[in-house]
Amino acid sequence: MGDLRKPFLLLALLAVALVVGVELGAAALTGGGDASGALRDNAGRLGVELGDVGAVSEPAGRGIGHLALIDVVALWTTGLFCLSLVLPDRVQGRVQGVATLVFSIVLLLVSLVLLIVAFVELTVMVSLFLAPPFGTLAYLAVWGFFPVGDAAVLLGLVLLLKLVWAGLLLAAQPRFLRNKGLVALALTTLLCTVALQFLHGLVPVILVSILDDLGAVVFAVVALIWALVLLIGSIPAIVKAIRTTATTSGRTVR
């Protein structure tokens, strides 16, 4: 890769690994706060007397966690760049094609499963919310009080780390800007993060869970697209590796 600055590349790998780690841990870092009082207030507006309410917690949401489906592609791509630091080009070409094929298939399957789960949950949310009063109360009890503040802090941290990742990649090798796939991936993950922040602030808090789940559905679809891109892109590398191996074997036999 020419004048590749290795420390910056390794730091970029660390930054994007932190991004994925924060997103995967979002379910544990957000939600869980007591929402019993808010539920009683909303029940009163619907004309329903709840009496004593058990523990009602804020939901963690799926949006931030589903961002990891996209950012794991950024982690994988950066990892492949780092792999070039320790493997010869010939060996890397063979390993990269097969490994990317396996990774893309796994990502495809995981994204598809999570897409179905998020879509089903979104359907249930909307159905309950549009069935007052008891359906709406059931929705409020489970999803009605999304922790917008906690999510905003996490998304701000994630966005900062992504900008650091992009900056470190450019510092490591300015010619990465010529890599259209990498630029498209960086823009995709940044836009998805900003879009989720926008969705969280677009509606009243009782509706945020619905838009958060909608974001999760969209992110799963985007991840499916990137998985297909990786899958298709790995095929030429595998074919080239097979041809090279066959040619080398033929020369050895002769």
From TrEMBL:
UniProt keyword annotations, A-Z: Membrane, Transmembrane, Transmembrane helix
Domain of life (superkingdom): Bacteria
Transmembrane segments: 64-86, 98-131, 182-211, 217-239
Name used for this protein in its record: Uncharacterized protein
Species of origin: Micromonospora marina
